[in-house]
Write a structure and sequence with these properties.
Structural class of chain B: mainly beta
Oligomer: heterodimer
Helix content of chain B: under 10%
Order of helices and strands of chain B: EEEEEEEEEEE
Number of helices of chain A: 0
Strand content of chain B: over 45%
Radius of gyration of chain A: 13 Å
Distance between the termini of chain A: 41 Å
Largest sheet of chain A: 6 strands, mixed
Shape of chain A: globular
Number of helices of chain B: 0
Largest sheet of chain B: 7 strands, mixed
Shape of chain B: globular
Order of helices and strands of chain A: EEEEEEEEEEE
Number of strands of chain B: 11
Structural class of chain A: mainly beta
Strand content of chain A: over 45%
Distance between the termini of chain B: 32 Å
Helix content of chain A: under 10%
C-alpha cells in the first residue's frame, strides 16, 4: 500500500535554531514530491521536487529529494516564530499526504 | 491568496443528512482534488476530477461523490452523514496537462456532524 511517513511528528525549537524535517515515501507511481506549509486552514505551496539531488531553495527554506532513499528533507535555517506551522509533504501530485510535522518556534 | 474559493466556510449538519460543498478553481486550472482532514492528521485524498471526469479516488465509500462543471468548479456531496465525517474539507486546483504542477488549496469547509 502506498504510504508517506513524516518525522518527527512534532518539534519545538527556539528562534534562530535550524531544523530538518523528513519525509519518506513508498508509492507505486512516483511523479513528484511536494512540500506545503499549513498555518490555519489552506496548505500553502513551498516546493515541488521531481529530480533527485537537486536542491530547491527559497530564502531560509530549502529542500532536496533522494530518489534512491525514497525520501526528502526540508531544512529551515534561522527559524522565526512565523515558521510555526504544520509542514506537509505529498507525493503523486498531491494525492497522498503524510501526517505532517507540527513545528513550534519559541521566542 | 490562491484564487481557489470554497463555500460554505463552516457547516453544522445532523447525522443522516446530506451535504454539498463547493469549490471554484483557480483560473486556468482544469483539475480539482478533494481532501478530508481530521484534526491532527494530514489531508486524506477523496477524489480528483479532471475535465469533468473522475480521475482517481481514495479509500472513501460511495456516499462521497462529486461533480466537476464545464468551468472546472466542483462539488463534493456526502450522503447519510456520520459523526466521523466531521472534518475540514479542502479542495485544491491544479493544471494537469503535459507536466506536473503544484496544487493550490482553498481555505476549506469545516463540517461538523452532530
Amino acid at each position: 500500500e502506498d504510504k508517506v511517513v513524516q518525522s518527527p511528528l512534532s518539534l519545538v525549537v527556539h528562534e534562530g535554531d535550524t531544523v530538518t524535517l523528513n519525509c519518506s515515501y513508498e508509492v507505486t507511481n512516483f511523479r513528484s514530491l511536494l512540500w506545503y506549509k499549513q498555518e490555519k486552514k489552506a496548505p500553502t505551496f513551498l516546493f515541488m521536487l521531481t529530480s533527485s539531488g537537486i536542491e530547491k531553495k527559497s530564502g531560509r527554506l530549502s529542500s532536496i529529494l533522494d530518489k534512491k532513499e525514497l525520501s526528502s528533507i526540508l531544512n529551515i535555517t534561522a527559524t522565526q516564530t512565523g515558521d510555526s506551522a504544520i509542514y506537509l509533504c505529498a507525493v503523486d501530485v498531491s494525492v497522498r499526504f503524510g501526517a505532517g510535522t507540527r513545528l513550534t518556534v519559541k521566542p | 491568496e490562491t484564487g481557489v474559493t470554497q463555500s460554505p466556510t463552516h457547516l453544522i449538519k445532523t447525522r443522516g443528512q446530506q451535504v454539498t460543498l463547493r469549490c471554484s478553481s483557480q483560473s486556468g486550472h482544469n483539475t480539482v482534488s478533494w481532501y478530508q482532514q481530521a484534526l491532527g492528521q494530514g489531508p486524506q485524498f477523496i477524489f480528483q476530477y479532471y475535465r469533468e471526469e473522475e480521475n482517481g479516488r481514495g479509500n472513501f465509500p460511495p456516499r462521497f461523490s462529486g461533480l466537476q462543471f464545464p468551468n472546472y468548479s466542483s462539488e463534493l456531496n456526502v450522503n447519510a452523514l456520520e459523526l466521523d465525517d466531521s472534518a475540514l474539507y479542502l479542495c485544491a486546483s491544479s493544471l494537469r496537462d503535459t507536466r506536473n504542477t503544484e496544487a493550490f488549496f482553498g481555505q476549506g469547509t469545516r463540517l461538523t456532524v452532530v
